[in-house]
């Protein structure tokens, strides 16, 4: 491809909104029965159906959008420069996050779950020494850890895969993109990717549970790298994206039906089924989960293409802000939840307080980081380019800091 495809503004908005949904989700994790770093004394299964509204599709959507963005950057920069830029953009915040941002989460986790009595300084000596003695039964906390920053590590690995494939395939990438786009028309847009994702889930998930540990997380790798590479491929086929708009309501209806059915399935006790029937129920859930995941992604893209395919000053600011917000948000939630727990606020009020404070403090971090040449790379914000030297317009220079 000799020229870059047009900017897909609506995908920037999708990425922005998805990261803010993540804040709501991680606040919710404090109040549900699912394992997390700390737990509210009010934790129950009450809001778990609401958590299910986003959990099947949110991360897959982010990996797919990241694939689109990575592919478009490759067109502009070439494979070698792209890999260098992306490695700096992802690995510097990852290392900084593991050393500075994430440790308070792990400290409060061992305080809450294991009644650890040491100071934070004592804990950090163990953390940096790769201590593996914080265990509850067979479940041990691996230190140091990346916690929610696993997404950054996985994204960097998939970036390497994409860069290697593009370098190896050359011009064949665009021909492949055209063939994939030609096959994804009408009902096939929903059915074909769903079938592939369902097969991956049926074949791999029973044997490779989620670990987010990179080296043994094979189901998640198969699932997410497929979506990442699909996004990277379709980035080269601009004719594909308008096809999602007329499917948006149908996809939303399918996703809603899957959510309702899964809510019932997850609520049924296992004791209702004999062993063979239980396995069949789990397979049905895996199929529904995959259909929910992909149809929700199609619906999100379709509605965003219809209503958000435009530029604005808000987009330019937020697309720069979401990555540093992502880096700090979970630590803020964990630390503040622990700090305000003695107030014994009603759960709804406490959750609202956590959401408001997380947003306010996250954007405060953004405002500080974007003004500092030292902090910008640590929080994944590109250095400010010099338009006078490069000859680029002010608009181009600003966009360059936000990729």
TrEMBL record:
Residues 10-365 form the Acyltransferase domain. Pfam families: Acyl_transf_3 (PF01757). Keywords: Acyltransferase, Membrane, Transferase, Transmembrane, Transmembrane helix. The keyword DNA-binding does not apply. One of its GO terms (molecular function) is acyltransferase activity. The chain crosses the membrane at residues 12-32, 57-75, 87-107, 151-173, 185-204, 224-241, 253-275, 287-305, 317-340, 346-366. This is Acyltransferase family protein.
């Amino acid at each position: 491809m000799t020229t870059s495809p047009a900017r897909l503004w609506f995908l920037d908005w999708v990425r922005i909104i998805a990261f803010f949904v993540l804040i709501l989700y991680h606040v919710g994790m404090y109040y549900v029965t699912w394992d997390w770093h700390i737990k509210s004394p009010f934790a129950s299964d009450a809001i778990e159906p609401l958590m299910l509204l986003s959990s099947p599709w949110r991360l897959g959507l982010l990996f797919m959008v990241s694939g689109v963005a990575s592919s478009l950057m490759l067109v502009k920069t070439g494979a070698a420069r792209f890999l260098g830029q992306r490695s700096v953009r992802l690995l510097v915040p990852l290392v900084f996050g593991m050393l500075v941002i994430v440790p308070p989460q792990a400290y409060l986790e061992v305080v809450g779950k294991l009644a650890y009595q040491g100071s934070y300084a004592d804990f950090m000596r163990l953390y940096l020494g790769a201590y593996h003695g914080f265990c509850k039964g067979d479940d041990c906390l691996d230190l140091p850890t990346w916690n929610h920053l696993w997404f950054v590590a996985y994204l960097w690995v998939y970036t390497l895969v994409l860069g290697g494939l593009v370098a190896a395939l050359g011009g064949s990438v665009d021909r492949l993109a055209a063939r994939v786009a030609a096959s994804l028309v009408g009902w096939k847009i929903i059915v074909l990717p769903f079938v592939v994702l369902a097969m991956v889930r049926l074949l791999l998930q029973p044997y490779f549970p989620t670990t987010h540990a990179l080296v043994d997380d094979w189901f998640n790798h198969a699932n997410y790298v497929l979506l990442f590479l699909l996004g990277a491929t379709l980035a080269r086929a601009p004719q594909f994206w308008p096809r999602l708009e007329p499917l948006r309501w149908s996809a939303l209806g399918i996703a809603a039906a899957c959510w309702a059915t899964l809510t019932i399935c997850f609520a049924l006790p296992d004791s209702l089924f004999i062993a063979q029937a239980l396995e069949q129920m789990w397979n049905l859930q895996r199929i529904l989960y995959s259909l929910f995941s992909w149809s929700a992604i199609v619906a999100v893209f379709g509605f965003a293409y219809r209503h958000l395919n435009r530029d604005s000053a808000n987009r330019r600011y937020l697309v720069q802000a979401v990555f540093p917000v992502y880096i700090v948000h979970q630590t803020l939630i964990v630390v503040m939840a622990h700090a305000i727990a003695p107030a014994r606020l009603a759960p709804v009020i406490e959750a609202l307080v956590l959401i408001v404070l997380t947003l306010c403090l996250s954007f405060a971090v953004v405002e500080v980081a974007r003004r500092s040449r030292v902090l910008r790379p640590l929080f994944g914000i590109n250095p400010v380019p010099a338009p006078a030297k490069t000859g680029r317009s002010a608009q181009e220079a600003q966009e360059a800091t936000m990729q």
